[in-house]
Design a protein that fits this description.
CATH superfamily of the domain at 61-135: Oxo-4-hydroxy-4-carboxy-5-ureidoimidazoline decarboxylase
CATH topology of the domain at 61-135: UraD-like
Largest sheet: none
Shape: globular
Bound molecules: guanine
Number of strands: 0
Oligomer: single chain
Structural class: mainly alpha
Radius of gyration: 16 Å
Number of helices: 9
Distance between the termini: 15 Å
Order of helices and strands: HHHHHHHHH
Length: 159
């Protein structure tokens, strides 16, 4: 696989952040396994500057947010949010998500990120409420852990 094929295939593994695939490509052999690709991409994120990490977190859309309602999500995010039933929220659930999204973003300056594939709306809302009580450093680290989980699931879907 040449460089541009690699970026084409893996550029969306980290949401709106093809720089992760571009950096990882430099370290990977042509026949790298899924495991090596996942580890290498995660290392590239972990070794990026705090500013780049923050930009990566901020590249994520809100869960059950305006972009989802407007149909403006990436295909991967559309599929993840739909697998958790976030495209089928009741009025009350949407209102609850909007309120939580606003409180969370106001407190931390970045969106709530959670690997939601196959989780239930109740589980997500419970985690959302709990994580709102955390401090900035904890949520920054948690967002990156969740982003690596999302990436791993996206890679597995490609395999
Ligand atoms: N978890 C899985 N996909 C997404 C996403 O697109 N946005 C957020 N905030 N969390 C996610």
């Amino acid at each position: 696989m040449n460089d541009s094929d690699f970026i084409e295939r893996y550029g969306g593994i980290y949401e709106h952040s093809p720089w992760v695939a571009e950096r990882a490509r430099r370290w990977l052999e042509d026949d790298a396994s899924l495991e090596s690709i996942a580890t290498c991409m995660a290392d590239c994120v972990d070794n990026a500057s705090p500013e780049q990490q923050l930009a990566l977190i901020r590249a994520h859309p809100d869960l059950a947010g305006r972009a989802q309602i407007a149909g403006e999500l990436t295909p991967a995010s559309t599929s993840e949010q739909a697998s958790a039933g976030l495209d089928r929220c009741s009025e009350a659930e949407y209102t609850r998500f909007q309120d939580l999204n606003e409180r969370y973003t106001t407190k931390f300056g970045f969106p709530f990120v959670m690997a939601v594939r196959d989780r239930s709306r109740v589980e997500i809302l419970d985690a959302f409420e709990q994580r709102l009580d955390n401090d900035y450093e904890t949520e920054f680290e948690t967002a990156l852990v969740e982003i690596h989980r999302i990436a791993r699931l996206r890679l597995e879907m490609l395999a």
